[in-house]
Amino acid sequence: MTSHDHDHDHSHLTETEARVRALESLLSAKGYIDSAAVDRIIQTYETKIGPRNGAHVVAKSWVEPEFEAWLRRDASAAIHSLGYHSRQGEHIEAVFNADDVHHLVVCTLCSCYPWSVLGLPPTWYKSPPFRSRAVIDPRGVLAEFGLTLAPTTRVEVHDSTAEIRYLVIPQRPEGTEGLTMDQLAELVTRNAMIGTGLARAPQVAS
Amino acid sequence: MTLPDLSLLPDIALAGNEPVFEEPWQAQAFAMAVTLHQSGAFTWAEWAKALTAEVHSGVERDYYQHWLCALEKIVAQKQLASASELVACKDAWHEAAARTPHGQAIAL
């Protein structure tokens, strides 16, 4: 076994991550902070957090068929070509929504989540009940997020692993023909890229 | 939820009125300072002072590294958790990570 393989046998926290976890676990054990309150504050900002590079990837795939084809063939290389590298260097697979299939990614682990591509995970995403329910009853979970799919749409649930992370490519919304890539990227929410939402409809100019 | 006045903090990167984070731990550290302040552990002015001391310490670090150092210090100063407790707990997290197979949640 190479040392590279060995590194993947167990988890790793950076010194900084361990210090932050130490603060949070000690202060909450002593009752000085409430983890739920910390999560609420983070949630206030969650749409702003993280580079959301994935939105650019999605928008590019909508306007450039060659890029879309590359993404389907080798998503890791296509994403890296835009200068986006995930820290752990794991393989990323792009899964494409269509009329007959909707993809949903589940993962309870923030360490397993490609935040450099998607932005921060929502706090509910880390909860074990979300994961187990999403596997057992994906339509029910999606309905709670306000997403009701046509009965003819199949739901595929993907579990991130240490080796493979998933990026959902949502369908391009109707009425977006004239938009620039940047405007299109604005429509791509974090939830659309994990499959608990769709890309937003463009705002109609009043 | 009303948040404290972020403009009191030195050199903080804001987009609109909101902080900008590059990694999840930064949001975590940010939120811990805000919630400790909200529960009365320290005043926002005390926090701004602690953070300013780090930012102006002459040590070259990223902004949220300053933030984290300031948080560790104010937490010790207010006797919420001592520096040695923090180090012991940090080491425990490293050990927990080492015994956790990749792909599973790390728990103490």
TrEMBL record, chain A:
Nitrile hydratase alpha/Thiocyanate hydrolase gamma domain: residues covered: 15-196
Keywords attached to this entry: Iron, Lyase, Metal-binding
MF annotations from Gene Ontology: nitrile hydratase activity; transition metal ion binding
Reaction catalysis annotation: an aliphatic primary amide = an aliphatic nitrile + H2O
InterPro entries reported for this sequence: CN_Hdrase_a/SCN_Hdrase_g_sf, CN_Hdrtase_a/SCN_Hdrlase_g, CN_Hdrtase_asu/SCN_Hdrlase_gsu, Nitrile_hydratase_asu
Top-level division of the source organism's lineage: Bacteria
Binding site for Fe(3+): 107, 110-112
EC number: 4.2.1.84
Family: Belongs to the nitrile hydratase subunit alpha family.
NCBIfam families attached to this UniProt entry: nitrile_alph
UniProt protein name: nitrile hydratase
UniProtKB/TrEMBL annotation, chain B:
Residue ranges annotated for the Nitrile hydratase beta subunit-like N-terminal domain, each copy included: 15-95
A Pfam family: NHase_beta_N
Matches recorded under NCBIfam families: nitrile_acc
Protein's recorded name: Nitrile hydratase beta subunit-like N-terminal domain-containing protein
Taxonomic path: unclassified sequences, metagenomes, ecological metagenomes
